[in-house]
Design a protein that fits this description.
Blueprint: H1 2-21, H2 27-32, H3 35-61, H4 68-82, H5 89-101, H6 110-121, H7 129-139
Length: 141
C-alpha cells in the first residue's frame, strides 16, 4: 500500500511538472511574471542572442570556406537583425508590456513578440504595414 501511495504521488508530481512545462509563453504568461522575472527573461533572451552572435562569428572565422566576403555578409546580416543599439533591458520589458496591453496581442507567443519589439527598436513604427502584416500572421497562430 505504501508503494502505491508513493507511485501515485510520483505520477501526480510528474504530471504537474509536464503541465507546467507546457505553459504557453504568450501575453497571459508575461502578465503573470513579476517585474524582476520579466527583467530576468529579457536578459536571458538577449544573452542568448549575444551568445549566438559570438558562436556564429567564431564558426564563420574558423570555417573551411575561403570566401571571407560571404562569411562577413552572413555575420553582418545576423547582427543587423539582432541590433538593439543602446536599448536597455528595462526598456525592452516596457515595450513588451506595452505590446501585450493590446488585447489583440494577448495570445501572440513571446518569442514572436520579441521579433516585433526588435523591429520597433530598430526604428520601424508599429503602424508600419509590414509590421502589421507580420503581427496579423502571429495573431492567427
Amino acid at each position: 500500500m505504501k508503494d502505491l501511495f508513493f507511485t501515485i504521488f510520483v505520477l501526480i508530481f510528474v504530471s504537474s511538472a509536464i503541465v507546467q512545462s507546457q505553459t504557453a509563453r504568450d501575453g497571459t504568461y508575461w502578465e503573470e511574471l513579476s517585474y524582476n522575472e520579466k527583467i530576468a527573461y529579457a536578459t536571458a533572451f538577449w544573452n542568448g542572442v549575444d551568445w549566438a552572435d559570438r558562436v556564429l562569428g567564431d564558426a564563420l572565422k574558423n570555417s573551411e570556406l575561403d570566401d571571407s566576403d560571404y562569411n562577413d555578409k552572413v555575420l553582418s546580416t545576423f547582427r543587423s537583425y539582432s541590433n538593439i543599439g543602446s536599448t536597455t533591458i528595462g526598456n525592452i520589458v516596457s515595450r513588451i508590456d506595452d505590446f501585450y496591453s493590446d488585447q489583440l496581442n494577448k495570445y501572440v507567443k513571446l518569442i514572436n513578440a520579441m521579433d516585433i519589439i526588435v523591429l520597433n527598436i530598430q526604428g520601424i513604427p508599429m503602424d508600419n504595414p509590414s509590421i502589421q502584416s507580420i503581427l496579423s500572421s502571429y495573431r492567427q497562430r
